[in-house]
Amino acid sequence: MMGLGWDPARRRVFRHREIDLNATALLFGGQQLVDAVYHEQLSSRDGSVRHLGDSVTGDGKGDNEVISIDITRVPAVVDRIILLVTCYTGQTLAEVDNPFCRLVDARNGVELLRHDLSPYTTSGFVLAVLVRGEHGWRLREVADSINAQHPVEAVPRMGGYLA
Questions:
Q1: CA-to-CA distance for 109 and 22, rounded, in angstroms?
Q2: What is the mean pLDDT of the chain?
Q3: Residues in domain TerD (predicted)?
Q4: Residues near 43 by Cβ (< 8 Å), separated by ≥ 6?
């Protein structure tokens, strides 16, 4: 499970403008994008990856957006899942109050990765890549900043993370 959280805009410059971060899972087969799960497409075609709802404000405690991944159901054609965050409203992550993203093993609640996003002066962040190998799935932490407001803008920049 990928979790993404942030607090509503409180800073003076954004007082009249909401901040909308987005959690995204990009499913690749080789170098080819096979499917995407994000605020405009809440489920992969087969239902193995699901976005549990879009938050456009950051209201509430904890994870504001969650992506659930059932790796036992991911189609065989998919060998990489890239998990990323983008800021739909265009602010840098450094301009957002208390932004974080994390990866949790939903079977036991163990947090595998967690990143405070506030140091990043870009509008996006690549958290990790799940990689399918002959012995199953493994997690590769990326923790890299990118400039992208929308997941579609991020797709052409993902090639380096697929190696």
A1: 22
A2: 91
A3: 1-147
A4: 37, 49, 50, 51
